[in-house]
Amino acid sequence: MHHPSFAFMLLRYTFLFALALACSAVAAQTDSIALGALTRTYTLRLPSAYDGVTPLPLVIAMHGGFGSGLQLEEQSLLSDKAELESFIVVYPDGVPSPLNIRTWNAGGCCGYAMNNNIDDVGFINALLDTLIAENAIDTLRVYATGMSNGGFMSYRLACELSERLAAIAPVSASMTIDMCTPTRSMPVLGLHSYLDDSVPYLGGIGTGVSSHYNSPQDSVQTAFAQHANCTVLNDTILDNTDMTLIRWHECDCQQEMVLYMTHDGGHSWPGGQPGTGIGDPPSIVINANDQMWDFFLQYTLDCTTLGVAERPSTTSNIALFPNPAAGSITVQGSPFVHLTALDMSGRVMATLDIAPTNSVVWDLSFLVGGTYTVRSLGNDGSINAARVVLE
């Protein structure tokens, strides 16, 4: 079979994406953070229900290769779902190559980010610190998803940043991590198509630009299920001409792994916007946004399964104030708290372990002038963050 050249595909994707954006009424507001020598960009969407006081869940949505945060927003229609369900969504951007192709370093995939060992886990970790310090975010309910290379990246985050994510939902993706050692079990929702020849459901090397090996869909789910001590594996709930639904359940923390395999669509975002320039026509059998949000609603970091109406009202037992602070910050909360001060490149500049009975003031004036993120970790697993500015 003849495949189009890399240059032709890049030209086609660039043209179609530009056309899609030109026809879109979505206004984008982006921001950036410095991480080492790189400036990393992202787009944050706050629903109209956001009041700056009530903490809302956060979904990290990562684009595929050749894409961007704005392109994924256009393709997935996830911001519409976020507005409807009142959650926050952030669309981070991968590092662009010299040809301006953005990818993620997901371990064994993909492209420029992988080849140059870009610290994308560090970027997402620093991004979470930034967003939590500046917005009312429920830190017990942070989730990750992504399309294709972005879905691969969500698997890597599940392996290496599991203490901050309550669940993940990769779309049209697999896992390319040699060693996955999460510190906690992770609920996983996989959304895939039998017609996806870029990431074949049976595994192997696909027909896409990247020539990496893809693990079979069920083996990835089984790996996470085994880590969660699930006793029921590969339980086929539904299998018809539209789709196959498989569950791995009876796991620790009432978790489960779920895999949707559709017979339509392909390498695309189910229920997404067609004609966005990257991937195949989307599945119309399921809607990825609906399925993943229903899945996310069940899980928090505190190892409980929640009903739809049972949303936690607080993000952490630890209070950091004021935010931003000048020179020192007051800590109030759990019986035991581990504090970390990070500079704007994500480097750890100071740590402190405290056991406050009321409140403790951490004086950071010994650090050089600049802006720092103070992250707290309680013995109950709760996380919070705030900014400290030193003259």
List the helices and strands and how they pair.
Layout: H1 6-22, E1 30-35, E2 38-45, E3 56-62, H2 69-76, H3 78-85, E4 88-92, E5 95-96, E6 102-103, H4 111-115, H5 120-134, E7 137-147, H6 149-160, E8 167-171, E9 188-193, E10 204-205, E11 213-214, H7 217-227, E12 232-239, E13 243-249, E14 257-262, H8 288-296, E15 319-321, E16 325-326, E17 328-332, E18 337-342, E19 348-354, E20 360-363, E21 370-378, E22 383-390
Parallel strand pairs: 3-4, 3-7, 7-8, 8-9, 9-14, 16-22
Antiparallel strand pairs: 1-2, 2-4, 5-6, 10-11, 12-13, 13-14, 15-17, 17-20, 18-19, 18-21, 21-22
- Helix count from the secondary structure assignment: 8
Strand content: 25-35%
Net shape? globular
Tally of domains: 2
Task: Compute the average pLDDT.
Answer: 86
Class based on secondary structure composition and strand pairing: alpha/beta
The count of DSSP E runs of length 2 or more, i.e. the number of strands, is 22
* CATH architecture level-2 label of the largest domain: 3-Layer(aba) Sandwich
Which strand order does the major sheet show?
A: 1-2-4-3-7-8-9-14-13-12
Supply Rg: 21 Å
How much helicity do the residues have?
10-25%
Low-confidence stretches: 1-28, 305-315
Could you give a short description of this structure?
The chain is 22% helix and 31% strand. With 391 residues, it is an alpha/beta fold.
